[in-house]
Structure formats: structure tokens, C-alpha cells
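The freezer alarm interrupted the setup, so I double-checked each line after restarting. Inputs confirmed:
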Amino acid sequence: MGKRAAIIGTGQTYCKSIRRDVNGQELINEAVTRALEDAELTIDDIDGVVIGNMDHFEGINYVDCWSIDGSGGFMKPTMKLCTGGTTGTTLGIGGYHMVASGMFEKLLVIGWEKNSESDTTGAIVTATDPILDRGVMAGALAGLAIEASEYAAAYGATSKDAARVSVRDRKHACNNPYAHLRKEVTIEEVLNSPVISDPLRLLDMCPRTDGACAVIYASEEVAEKICPQPAWVVKTANRHCYSRFADIKGQTSMLSLTTAAKELWAKTGIKEPLKEIDVVEMYQPYSWGGLIWFEDMGFCKKGEGPKYIWDGVTDMGGECPVNPSGGVISTNPIGATGLIRCAEVAHQIMGKAGDRQVPDVELALATGFGGCFWSDMILYSKNKPA
Amino acid sequence: MSKENEQEIELLTVHSRTDVEQVFRYSAGRYLNRFLVEMRDNARIMGVKCPKCGIVYAPPKEICDPCYAEMTEPVEVGPEGTIRNFTILRAPFVDPETGQAKPVPYAFGNVELDGAGSLIQNFLLTDDDSKIKVGARVKIEFHEERTGNMRDIKGFRLID
Ligand SMILES: [Zn+2]
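Predicted 3D structure, all chains:
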């Protein structure tokens, strides 16, 4: 097993549809500067840099080199990790692995996206099989719509149930100065918004966002010395599945997520996630994911997601608040999005989450979702793992 | 640069050229090659069966992922099948294959062809969108002119 490692500082940029005031490198620098300030470190303290995004969005293929101005990686070991939608949580897991290996002491991890610089759906289509899947496939939007169609047919969940998830996340976003969409929506507004891919409506979906996030991992030798409350990694789990969209059969639950969750709970001895986990930041880019994937992780039984959502169990003040940041439905700079989940739960553990702080957070879960329905999970703790 | 300056200076976005084409040439591979040739010459769908778990993959591929087994036995599937999931895409976007706006709305879904254990995605063809449901029956339709490409499939026509 590796050494213990913890997040000791995080930085996020302000997020908008188009951050026309900055280019990619400047956006990255904004997040890095804030993370260094948060950790009370300078770039000289950093002994390695890992960076990721959806490289086909900006059409810049050597992002590790190209971003050096903003990342501070000049004359440091620097590499990129890009895994599509899960890029941010892959960065969270990969960064942890590098520090846990004992080879790095203070590692800077960066996820970013200038989503405005190309056509998001068109770019995502290029992630699918060139011969089989590109003729009819329409990016994440359609992939998620077909999942919702199958889940709804199996369990009878309705668009109104899903709308309640959007209402929750958009309400939570009002507490988060870094969120992109900071305006509440009602059930009626969600249900009256235009259908963009049946059964999904505009307000069921995440926006396209320009934004960046950076976190700093530190090794067990230094974390407690330089940070009053590190956010320790307890365990991680991740699963990939088939490469072809059409091979993903039976989308009433996500195979990669149910499998990753089983592994994570087995590794950590968690029996009742709903009771034991204090806060969750899900990579949930559409409302239905707040039902389907919440069930798949074992927070409730299959088909019971709507009941838990309506009962307020996942609202701020509920038994297990989900997405206090406003989540992905409020802010989605894709390459940064998974890492924002890690940064948000780290600040929850550190007690630095401001107006979106959940009281007494000891165990916090960050998840990642990507492309062909694959899943990442990272459990963070206030307490140094045994 | 101070925030004040941003108010004074016009903020530019520099566009890449859109009048250039970069064409990719993908090898179909041993399995898809047979599939595409059968579709082009005989207007039929040939899958392949996993020797371990027995699942028939259509379109075919070399490896059954859960078994990590090489598949060798060709099996014809279809032409009818069942819709397993679907959507009607209404949001406009640029098709990276053509550089042109995709003609929305269009219905597409994943269909389990009779005899297959995997799904195949394509357009759903009907005069009445309300008939498109999970579990509805469909029949594959091919174009008259076929070139050995997934676009040889016109789509899946809903049948009563
Ligand atoms: Zn098999």
C-alpha cells in the first residue's frame, strides 16, 4: 500500500459561459494562484505538476507543455492526464497515487476547460468510435437522454422527479461564489424549459462553462506540518466499461458506478453510506443522474431515488447533503469539473466552505463521470487514515 | 493587468480557419470489415458469438470484454429487433464528421436485433414519434446504394 496523502489547498476560478477576459493559460494561472494562496505555499515549494482537460475541446494537444506559463511547471516534472469527462477525478486519483508513491511531496494538480472555444457536442462526438458511433451519436446530451429513457421505463420515475434534482442543485449554487449559474429555478420552470433531447429539458442539463481548478496534495510527512486540517484520501475506486456506446446494455443502473461503489464500501468498511457519509459532491451533469446514480452508489435502493430527493434527504440540512456547491448542473468546465468535486469536499473537511459549509464533516465523497459511462469515486476524511 | 483596463479594451476571440479539411482514414479491422462487406453486398447484419458466455455481438468485434475471449463464430442477426433506449435529439450542434449543422430533430436509439446480445444504434424511422418507446419493435432498413459504411443503414423502421 502507498503512503498517506492529503489535499492541503485548493483554488477555483470564477466561472462563466465565456471568460473572454482570459485565455487558457491565464485561466489556469488564476486557479493555481488561489490554490497556492490557500495552502500558503509558493510555486518553489511544488515538486511536480499534473494537468488535464478535454484536449479536443480547445484543439490543443500538448496541454502539459502549452500550459506551462499558467501552471508554473517551468523546469518541473510535468505531465498530463486526460480521460474525458472523468479527467478531473482522474487527476484527483492520479495525483494521490503520485504522492502516495513517495516520489512527490507537494504536487500541484490542475483541471481546466475553455468550453466556449469549440462546439461541445461536436467535440464529444469525436470521443466515440469513428466507424460505428459518429453517424447518429450526439455527445453527452444524447448519451444521457437514452439512459434516462431506459431508467424511466423500468422504474416509472418522471420528469418532475428529475426536476426536483435541478431545483436542489440550482438552489445550492446560490451559496457558492464560484458557481456559474447562481439563480434558483422552480419545478415549473424546469418542466416548462425547452426539450433538447427527449426526455431531457434545458434545465435538466449542465451549462457549458469556462473555468479551472487546482488542488495541492501533500505527503504524510509534511501535510500536518503545513496545513491545520488536511483532507486525507481514504480510498479511491474507478471502473471503465466498453468502448462502444451501443454495448452499454441495461442502463437502468450504471455498471461502472455500482461496481466502483461496491469496491469503495468494501475497502472502507462502510455499510450504510447514507448514514456514514457526511457530504457528497457528485459529477452529475444532468438531473436524472441525481436519481439513478444516487441509487447505484447504494445510498438507497433501486427505484427509491425520487422519494429520497423529494424528502429533502440530499438538500442542505438533510441527512446527506449532495452538491452543496450547486454541482455540475450549475457549473461545468468539463476538464475541471471532477477536480472541483475534490476541491469542494476538501474545503468541507477543512471547514472553509463558507456559506455552503455542511456542519461537522468527517467523511466526504467526490465522484467522477465520463464519456462512455465510466466512474471514479474518491473518499476523503478529516481523520488521518490508519 | 488590472480589472479596470478590461473595461477599456475590446476583448477579442481569434477564430481558427473553418475552410480547411483534415480527413482521417480508419482501418475497419478484421471483424468490422466482414460486417461492412456483408452489409454492402448482402444487406444483412452479421454478428459474432463469444465462445465463453455465448453473447452475440452485432456489430462484431474481436474481444468479448467481460470474458476477454476472442470471438470466432459468425452469426446472422435481425432484421427485426427491439428498442432498448432512445432519444429525439432537438438541440442543434455541429457534426464533426461533416463540419455542418446536424439536421435536428431526429430520433435515434439503441436496438437489440433478434439473435444479438449487444445493441446497435441508429436512426429511428416513423411518421409518429409517440410510437417510439422502450420495448417497441423495429425492422432495419438499408439504402439502395451501399458503400460499406454505417451510413448504409437508413435506420430502424417502427413496425406494429
Ligand atoms: Zn463473453
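Quick read of the result. Chain A touches chain B through 47 residues (CB under 8 Å).
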